[in-house]
Amino acid sequence: MRLTRRTLIAGTGLLAGLGLPARAAAQDGEGSERRAVLVVLPLVRKDYVGDSGTDTPNIEVLRGDSLRFDRVIPESMPALPVRRTLVTGMRSYPFRDWKRTEGMPAVPGYNPVWDWQPVMMETMGLAGVDTVYVTDNPIVEGPRFGRVERPGGSVESAGRGGIEDEIAAIRRATRATERTFKAGIRELRDFSGFVGIDPFDPVDAVQAPPIYIKPAEVDREGIGTMNDRLVELDWGGDQVDDLRSAYRDHVEAVDEWFGELMDAVPDDAFLFVLGDIGIALGEHDYIGRGTPTSHRESYEIPFMIRDPDERKSGDDVDWYASTHDVAPTILSYLGLTIPGKMWGEDLTALLDDVDEDDLYDRPFSITASGSLIVVRDKRWLMVADREEIERRLYDDDEEVEDDITRFQDVANEDTGQLTDMSLAALAVAGGTLPEFGPDGALRPPRERGDDDEDDDGIPNDFDAVDNDEPDDNDDAEALGYDGRDAEDRGAARP
Question: From CA 416, how far away is CA 414, in angstroms rounded?
Fold first, then answer.
């Protein structure tokens, strides 16, 4: 067994079994109590931090003091599904456990935290660590989540009429930031253990956000319904300018309130700061959250760890971290046992001079939004629509000079790469992808043809590429992917 920080920390469970006080686990080497703070920056794209005409000095200061993770995309989208991953440390992809829940939209991923899933705050509480979570997210509710402080957000009316509605949603996110950071500042004045500060617009729990697409793109991209979220809309440059201006205002407001919050964060606290989801702002003919766009920057979020001992301060990491790594990392820093069902990685290992190559291999980052699946590496981006059985592949090679050709679908031109990325998605999903009915994931899946004429491991009915020529040596083993998530997922409940 490879010796990692996770295997060392797991030994603390033996102490609890011997009746030794778990509270001692949340202390540093000098006996002082450790403290941790989690801050979510709602709807902040990584490329809008210090760029794209935005003024974000406070987040930039933190970036200079933190271990920064590049190319991070959330483990699932949009805002509510990613919160389940955040507090459970479990992958939500590919929403195999989805069941339609009253009061939530009938979209895969929209459901509460199930009883069999671990909860970060519950794990802390059982070890005697004080916790408070500041949010208006309704799924963070009940004794398992410790003390929850509600900033007071309410469900406002939200339409699906067009860009003005998207601008209104951005402004709601700004208001959620203001009220939540204000409440968070009060909690930070005198705390022990853990404080989570997570702005959330309650509308995002009752309505899946629309995805706006230019009418001509529907047929061209092969996109059909996207769980009834797709809205055809013909917009002009002035409307996009208004949208981007409103978004820049939001990011700058988040930064301003983040500066106020940072004044209250003690220097001896472990600080984890990340975005929740990105947003498409008219690039490549899409607008909205959790879109099937080929524009990578629409997915990427800031992701930073500030260690109180300044370990790896200002360093960058290319390893594909994601949202399900947050809970295991914070628990590890506090010296607590990471529940076995938490599939995320303990990123504190990187603070201890562990090379990123020693972490479990993640050659791809994978996320899901309803029936949409996005698989990405440093060059390639695959977008798969499970409803329409459609896969698209985009080449982001920097050597390609023409931006137009960089974002054209090349699925039929590079079937081997498409297969590699499809197999990676299957490996992380546990070997199969669920089919969805109106009330939940289907077991068994709907019957479909299983012919696989090109022998690429993907039945013809699920294959977006030609099926006449077999590919050579395209199997999961050839990917170099260790399949750890798939093995752990084997214990997941229906």
Answer: 6
